[in-house]
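Practice problem: predict the structure.
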Amino acid sequence: MKKIIVIIVILAVGIMSCSKTGKVNKKSKKRNIEAVSKKPDILKISYEDYMKQRMEDAKKDVLPEDVTGQMLEVWKSEIAKLYNLLLVELSDKEREKLRVEQKEWENKVNTEPKEKKLEKTEKRAIEMAKRYDKIRKK
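Answer:
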């Protein structure tokens, strides 16, 4: 009999704690919705500035063993994002021009040593970000 009472009490406590958790989650969801409905500051700055901020944060997170290699991968990833963003925004003729331009750039930069490749990749990403910002302003 005592075991049954203990089990019932444990179940009741578990049910009550779950129902309180649900109420807290509903409140936090409301706060999240309110936060999302407000325009974040990120929409007020250019993609170029936003990208530079993220790259500075990424630089702090890389491991000290191979900073150049890791940052090169981060910048390459950014170029891929920008490339896809630009493809969506450009006309067919401009898209084809971008494809050719990007292919030529990749072939040229792949022959460079790692440090030069990082420098040129960073420069290319900034150029593409400026191009994207220019298109967005229209």
